[in-house]
Amino acid sequence: MAEQKATNVHWHEGDITREHRGELLGHKAATLWFTGLSGSGKSTVAVELEGILSERKVLSYRLDGDNVRLGINRNLGFSAEDRTENIRRVGEIAKLFVDTGVIALSSFVSPYLEDRDVVRKLHEDAGMDFIEVFVDCSLAAAEERDPKGLYKKARAGEIKNFTGIDDPYEAPVNPEIHLHTDQMSLEEEVNIIIKVLEDRGILSAA
Amino acid sequence: MAEQKATNVHWHEGDITREHRGELLGHKAATLWFTGLSGSGKSTVAVELEGILSERKVLSYRLDGDNVRLGINRNLGFSAEDRTENIRRVGEIAKLFVDTGVIALSSFVSPYLEDRDVVRKLHEDAGMDFIEVFVDCSLAAAEERDPKGLYKKARAGEIKNFTGIDDPYEAPVNPEIHLHTDQMSLEEEVNIIIKVLEDRGILSAA
Predict the structure, then answer these.
(1) Helix (H, G, I), strand (E, B), or coil: what is residue A62?
(2) What is the value of pTM for the model shown?
């Protein structure tokens, strides 16, 4: 956990709550945290889900490893320490989105159990839904897809600290959702997620 | 500008755009950036505005110096370097909110011209509205209010780097909105802001 440096700061509770914003939007909020190897299909399922949610007039927003790393986390690299800070910041941003009433779709490799648990705790301590989605795919399948050509570069030693090659991936122990992207269709994957959102009362049944 | 550390990252453009989300919400998005001395009334006007926007079914979210410093920026203090990084991160978060379709209400002392201009440029380069609101109040009036007792502590030397006491405040040169909170009522202040939002087509006229 990052040290709290600033003192003399206190949480401001405004008049408008998360519940007010939920009424305005007509649905509840949550963070869906997609974790898995590069090439496992995290972004693919998040993009598809975003489209389905939009059709249902549900406000969601994708936080994406690449997008965030070009913005707020542009001063972070891929060392273990920087990965931890990357995930911590994204977790805090996702929490702000949930507080706004938005369904946050975070897709990050997020290879370390402890880092993901920090984000889970951030949400659960605030009474927010945190739904871990394990986007599971064998390394062989992910490496064969290699949509960005990154495995090839990692194997050639051109990229260091690459998850699955020379950096570990710690699989979720008990994720809320477990997708096997080398065995399921995209439609099946999205349906599983929608069902969980409905069962939890985040979305009304269609 | 923070150095871009991660390479091999590319912006993902999803199917759902800011325009789609604007249609879903029924209004456009923007960042309102409230800047001014501690005690000038930034949070007060932001909270009031948030309430008025909510009555009009407009989704807004307050990003607040204190709130953010307890979350994403908990590892930052008040040195010039940390203030700059604080504002940079908040600027990036505000931009994500605007991309989501939300009106971001950022209230931070944000004492340095250059830091605010970085955030302005971030928005304008992405075709986003950035509305700087100078929450202007004499140091004497802010110090007399001293709602958090911080000026007293700063004068006693218990807080260092306190804006207006032993750290500079660089006033906006040409802000979109200039509020004189020691001469205006809260209602007048909010009306001025609403008028600007309507004139810019961010809100429909009531």
Answers:
(1) strand
(2) 0.90
